[in-house]
Amino acid sequence: MAPSLTCDPVTTPQSANVPQTQVGLDGKVIAITGANRGIGLGIAECCLSNGAAKVYSIDIGEVGEDFTSLSKRYNGRLLTVTADVTDESTIIAAIDQIIDETGGAFHGMVVNAGRTHHKAALDFTKEDIERLFNVNLFGAFYTARAAARAFIKLGIKGSIVFTASMASYRPNKRVPSTPYGASKAGVRNMTHTLAMEWAQYGIRVNSVSPGLVNTAMTYWVPQQPDWEQQLKYYGGFPRLAEVQELGGAYVYLLSEAASYTTSIDIPVNGVIGIC
User: Which one of 40, 108, 113, 131 has the fewest beta carbons within 10 angstroms of its own beta carbon?
Assistant: First the structure.
């Protein structure tokens, strides 16, 4: 029988010496920014279905029916804490609250909060660009740093997983967004650099790059008159991804099965995400 996962790989000798072979999050406490809805909520669902003890959404907005329904399904193991990722002090306070409520348990941070804005580069205003970078890049850095400081203080070899984007590799020809793609490329570079810096603490840092995902932000994609033609041209799976289909990559990177995996990006794009 494969060894079971444990809450704290630092303080459990067997976990520290024997590589884990099961992909799961048994007993782990995971925080996800921007998980009140959309991709973040899909990641939360996957974490809970793979054994996470508790999942906290760190978000600035209100929760909706989908969040409430999922929390009920998992007997209150899905919770929310209010914070603004552009204000590092609120992220620190949110993590402190999580640690207080769980008695010192905090194992993984998914840096997921983001925003998008698609239009021609010449049409972006200064305010448009600053809003994108404040959330997607600066907020991501503040969140990761707050999580790393908490892991180091607790003596936990935690996992940080950023949500990047296929736009960080190449532009979407139909709906370009230079600031968005640049911010997500910055996230992928941050992943590699922080992984190098924080390896000395046993902290793993990775990212996931979704392609086209079925969320409120992408409602317009299949409504394009030539959408079917686009799918035939790009090949791959002829549909958008559902938010839950991204979760497996996050679960793996958050799990002890990935104990020697750091500084990588996992594209989840069904091929069409490369357009």
Answer: 131
